[in-house]
């Protein structure tokens, strides 16, 4: 927190007051710090506020910053494109989104034909995938996981399981299955009972013919809940037996974030029918995508599939640069290496602090779950808030997540360094000592 930026005209209190007065959004949930912060600058994994204080962004601005804040190559690509032609609708041809589509298709499992539809956001991609699955299968019923979050739009809300993140009155035809949470899932650790429950749910809570199941390979807002070995492939098998599709929501868990694989679903060898992505794809530029097997997309594409900004060349140029930088800077490898080191440090903290109930995740998608005591596993929301605030005072931006808001989520830019790991572990250690 030493680097000093010139104090400028940005008045923190006026900005905070203006924002609180005019923004219609869940401020208390998503700006949970006691005092406001106005960020002015970002570079790599760091942010600076208006007073020149430096922070390590372990939230990755909500998992959007994959290759680093304001990465010069991504910014340059978007600027060049915007100067030449900012927007060109899908009705016409433009090489940039067409190249991006080819590059995204190439990241998918080999031996299948993949097609791409670009959107502005994750929830638009989720909505589109829902309609695509229903159109292709001719079935209405969808399955989703109880602690899933799939977005704020009405359709995405209908498959969001966490009640605190879902409004009443959303569209129906959705049945929820229990998440295979290895720490506090209703069937304890393991995979099979959770798969059996998918069969039971299809038989008891749907028409018997389903359109598909949506699965986050590692649940994000749900509290970094990784699907155990065999769950994704087993879920796909069961749902396909009932006529449905396997839809991977990779909005948080994709783009090399989990280290070992580029896509989270690869961990289990499952070949999805549809993959939904956003966030890290644009490194902060608004873009999402549905990547689907060609025959699955065909019936919907023939009828109607169009977004005004669906193939926006400026966002597409940024996304192409993100893919190139991921390779050039071997960021997936870095996520595995640095994430592995951070996980070890978090596990070490767990041996010394009773309130750390669980440490989990992989690559740079990690979490600490905070409990009142390990025996009862009672979520400790107040302690989570205290640790979160104490970390902010030490220059670390984290995020609270999980259905009980007692999970500290770490999803930084994939360029996090070993020095950042030390700083994070030390800051967390001090925060837990002072609880
Ligand atoms: N799916 C997942 C797994 C997400 O985490 C989110 C956003 N947090 C979405 C979908 C929705 O994305 P967006 O907010 O870009 O609409």
UniProtKB/TrEMBL annotation:
It is an enzyme of class 2 (transferase). PROSITE patterns: AA_TRANSFER_CLASS_3 (PS00600). It comes from the Bacteria. Keywords: Aminotransferase, Pyridoxal phosphate, Pyruvate, Transferase, Transit peptide. GO terms for molecular function: alanine-glyoxylate transaminase activity; pyridoxal phosphate binding. InterPro entries: Aminotrans_3, Aminotrans_3_PPA_site, PyrdxlP-dep_Trfase, PyrdxlP-dep_Trfase_major, PyrdxlP-dep_Trfase_small. The keyword Ion transport does not apply. Signal peptide: none annotated. Its cofactor is pyridoxal 5'-phosphate. Gene3D superfamilies: Aspartate Aminotransferase, domain 1, Type I PLP-dependent aspartate aminotransferase-like (Major domain). It holds the Pfam family Aminotran_3. Belongs to the class-III pyridoxal-phosphate-dependent aminotransferase family. Homotetramer. This is alanine--glyoxylate transaminase. It comes from Shimia gijangensis.
């Amino acid at each position: 927190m030493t680097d000093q930026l010139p104090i400028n005209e940005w008045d923190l209190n006026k900005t905070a007051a203006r924002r609180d007065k005019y923004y219609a959004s869940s401020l208390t949930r998503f700006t949970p710090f006691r005092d406001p912060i106005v960020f002015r600058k970002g570079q790599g994994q760091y942010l600076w506020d208006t007073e020149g204080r430096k922070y390590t962004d372990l939230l990755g601005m909500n998992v959007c910053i994959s290759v680093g804040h304001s990465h010069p190559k991504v910014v340059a690509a978007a600027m060049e494109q915007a100067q030449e032609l900012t927007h060109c609708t899908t009705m016409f041809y433009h090489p940039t989104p067409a190249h991006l589509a080819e590059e995204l298709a190439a990241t998918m499992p080999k031996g299948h034909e993949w097609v791409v539809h670009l959107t502005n956001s994750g929830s638009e991609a989720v909505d589109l995938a829902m309609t695509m699955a229903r159109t292709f299968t001719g079935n209405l019923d969808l399955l989703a996981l109880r602690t899933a979050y799939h977005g704020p739009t009405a359709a995405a809300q209908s498959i969001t399981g966490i009640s605190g993140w879902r409004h009443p009155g959303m569209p129906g035809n959705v049945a929820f299955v229990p998440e295979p949470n290895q720490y506090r899932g209703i069937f304890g650790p393991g995979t099979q009972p959770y798969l059996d429950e998918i069969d039971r749910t299809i038989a008891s809570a749907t028409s018997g013919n389903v359109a598909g199941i949506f699965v986050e390979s590692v649940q994000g807002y749900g509290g970094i809940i990784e699907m155990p070995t065999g769950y994704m492939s087993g879920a796909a098998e069961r749902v396909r037996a009932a006529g449905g599709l396997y839809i991977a929501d990779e909005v948080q868990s994709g783009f090399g974030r989990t280290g070992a694989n580029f896509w989270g679903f690869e961990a289990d060898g499952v070949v999805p029918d549809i993959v939904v992505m956003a966030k890290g794809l644009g490194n902060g530029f608004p873009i999402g995508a549905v990547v689907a097997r060609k025959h699955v997309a065909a019936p919907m594409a023939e009828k109607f599939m169009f977004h005004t900004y669906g193939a926006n060349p400026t966002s597409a140029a940024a996304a192409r640069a993100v893919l190139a930088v991921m390779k050039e800077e071997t960021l997936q490898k870095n996520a595995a290496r640095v994430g592995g080191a951070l996980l070890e440090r978090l596990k070490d903290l767990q041996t010394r602090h009773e309130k750390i109930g669980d440490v989990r995740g992989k690559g740079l998608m990690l979490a600490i779950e905070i409990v009142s005591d390990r025996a009862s596993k009672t979520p400790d929301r107040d302690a989570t808030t205290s640790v979160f605030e104490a970390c902010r005072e030490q220059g670390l931006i984290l995020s609270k997540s999980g259905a009980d808001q007692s999970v500290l989520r770490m999803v930084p830019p994939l360029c996090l360094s070993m020095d950042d790991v030390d700083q994070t572990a030390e800051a967390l250690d001090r925060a837990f000592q002072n609880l």
